[in-house]
NAD-dependent malic enzyme
Amino acid sequence: MGQKQQKDLGGNSVIIRLEIRGDRMNFGLVANIVSSLGGDIIAIDTIHIGNDSSIRDMTVNVADATAVILITDAIGKIPGIRVVNTSDRTFLLHLGGKIEVTPKVTIQNRDDLSRVYTPDVARVCAAIQEDPIKAFSLTIKRNTVAVISDGTAVLGLGNIGSRAAMPVMEGKAMLFKQFAGVDAFPICLDTVDTEEIIRTVKAISPAFGGINLEDIASPRCFEIEERLREELDIPVFHDDQHGTAVVTYAGLINALKVAGKSLSEATVVVCGIGAAGVAISKILLSAGVMELIGVDKEGILVQGEDYANPIKTSYAGYTNPNRRTGTLRDAIKGADVFIGVSAGGMLIREDVMEMASQPIVFAMANPHPEILPGDIDDIVAVAATGRSDYPNQINNVLCFPGIFRAALDCRASAINEEMKLAASEAIASVIADDKLSKHYIVPSVFDQSVVERIRDRVIRAAIDSGVARRIPKEYR
Ligand SMILES: NC(=O)C1=CN([C@@H]2O[C@H](COP(=O)(O)OP(=O)(O)OC[C@H]3O[C@@H](n4cnc5c(N)ncnc54)[C@H](O)[C@@H]3O)[C@@H](O)[C@H]2O)C=CC1
Ligand SMILES: CC(=O)C(=O)O
Ligand SMILES: [Mg+2]
């Protein structure tokens, strides 16, 4: 993926194109109007100067879409100014997509041409035919991951279809490259049929060193991942399950230190027993949580009930040891930890007030968390969300670049439990105990030591657990 044409990612900002009649614009008046409506002008660019009018682009930071409407309405009423159009900078940076393929070498002449392509390339093909493992050294397989979605559980937007899922998958590919140097291809499949997805992923797998499944709805995501893990010899990792679980456990290790609590004594409520909720629960149980209660639309999941979704029936069998019943409100009373991977706005301040002292709230639904940190910051030990605009971003982006970097570098045949736990511990360990605080329990995704530390611990775990097929030099 080339990074030649770097685009400015901008903030939550719009470009408002103005036509200004006459030769003067009252900048003070415009600035006052924009700021009184919650905006902040960050640039004004002259696009065209005509005889009677000029065209200027005004870039404004805004809190939300409503502010844009209010600002453009008010500016449009200033005599001599016409609002030509507004461009959302987020849409602008998506124009034409966010990634591209760039060759590593330039073909300068016929000699180069015959090496990269026919006839010489045939010798390389023959070498791989003779010894298929050479695909790892002679093709992009060595460093390339497929990011596969069927568009059925995209962020918290739900089943928006495979075309609409592409911007998220392109974004994941950017993150893979920027944070860990992994080349990733976004592939959105136009099918929601479990067998067809499995067949298709298997059919395209020769080109890839790993498969990152993304935003595939539960319960189908479980079978798709399980079957692909069994049938492919490269790592298959459903990021919404395991990436989220790894980062949640990392965040919890540190949040518990801030709250002065222990994992084995904490009562943990997980809300939303889908892809993320099931995997989070499993990693926390294997890490030593004793009392874990799952809540979904049916209320608290309890053993003995026969839920329409068999995943929930089986989940109830290994959680909720005290067989508590009732609603989310009942579950959360006296709980030490709330983990939300369900839907926005599920929780209210009064619920959190019912939790044990020094509660920990991870409201991780995207894009709208179960509760906003601002509503509870004064009554919790730690609050976290999945978003980048609040402190404590518990998001799988902290995990997937590093864990795949490690898996590719040691040619792992799988990403197993040992590697996931190692990744959690690596992420948590980036912040020294004396630096931990209420608003700093997980490192920033821009902290370069995150990927390095995950890579190191995960490669060691892969070697120790016997799934590494290549031992990198520094580990020999
Ligand atoms: N911060 C992060 O890194 C991540 C956040 N997420 C977010 O977590 C949420 C769930 O994602 P997935 O597990 O992939 O989806 P999913 O569709 O597999 O699971 C969602 C679960 O939440 C339940 N749910 C929905 N509304 C509910 C309600 N009102 N009460 C109780 N349960 C409810 C559903 O029944 C379902 O079992 C999404 O908002 C997603 O964006 C998911 C993965 C990573
Ligand atoms: C972060 C992510 O993968 C999700 O919200 O689906
Ligand atoms: Mg996702």
Notes: The chain has three domains: 13-94, 110-234, 241-476. Residues 13-94 form a domain with the Alpha-Beta Plaits fold (CATH 3.30.70.260).
